[in-house]
């Protein structure tokens, strides 16, 4: 379950949404336990289901904001949960720029490339990635290579500086 949540979080960029997606996919998979051999194919089916759910979610583009209500019941305000006391302002600026560049680069990747790259960062083998994405191991390697190349080009100016 932690690997599945980490995988989904890498695709949707929100841990809470990822947990919900994984839970839904897991429940749907268990509901059809009689139709599949979960012992043998469970992990592959779960990751494929998560990938499809993330694709569906990205097409819908639903966003949720966290607001904190005022004491008097007036309009709320955005609540920032980041503890910024641990960093110097210049570190925050540098980190923020690089983080935005990486996020923008990841968003430019296709969902399949992003999924392959995320699975690889979780330590999955090419065969496992291929099974989860329903491609050949060679194609999984190509997806990872192209995703890394595209991301590298996108963040090159930030890394060189």
List the secondary-structure elements in sequence, H or E.
HHHEEHHHH
CATH class of the largest domain: Mainly Alpha
CATH architecture of the largest domain: Orthogonal Bundle
Structural class by sheet pairing and helices: mainly alpha
Q: Give the averaged pLDDT, no decimals.
A: 78
Major sheet: order of its strands?
Answer: 1-2
CATH-defined fold name of the largest domain: Arc Repressor Mutant, subunit A
Work out the strand percent: under 5%
Structural account:
With 161 residues, the protein is mainly α. The protein folds into two domains: 1-61, no CATH class; 88-161, Arc Repressor Mutant, subunit A (Orthogonal Bundle). The chain is 71% helix and 2% strand. The chain has seven helices and two strands; from the N terminus they run αααββαααα. It has a two-stranded antiparallel sheet with strand order 1-2. β1 and β2 (77-78) form a beta hairpin. α1 (2-12) crosses α2 (15-31). The longest helix has 24 residues, at 137-160. It is globular, with a radius of gyration of 19 Å. Mean pLDDT is 78; it is low at 62-67.
């Amino acid at each position: 379950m932690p690997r599945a949540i980490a995988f989904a979080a890498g695709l949707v960029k929100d841990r809470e949404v990822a947990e919900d997606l994984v839970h839904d996919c897991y429940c749907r998979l268990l509901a059809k336990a009689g139709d599949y051999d979960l012992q043998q194919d469970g992990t592959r089916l779960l990751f494929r289901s998560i990938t499809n759910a993330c694709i569906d979610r990205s097409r819908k583009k639903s966003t949720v904001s966290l607001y904190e209500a005022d004491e008097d019941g007036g309009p709320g305000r955005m609540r920032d949960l980041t503890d910024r006391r641990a960093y110097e302002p210049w570190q925050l600026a540098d980190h923020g720029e690089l983080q935005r560049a990486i996020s923008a680069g990841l968003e430019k990747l296709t969902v399949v490339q992003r999924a392959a790259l995320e699975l690889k960062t979780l330590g999955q083998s090419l065969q496992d990635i291929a099974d989860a994405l329903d491609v050949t191991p060679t194609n999984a390697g190509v997806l990872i290579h192209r995703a890394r190349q595209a991301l590298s080009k996108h963040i090159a100016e930030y890394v060189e500086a």
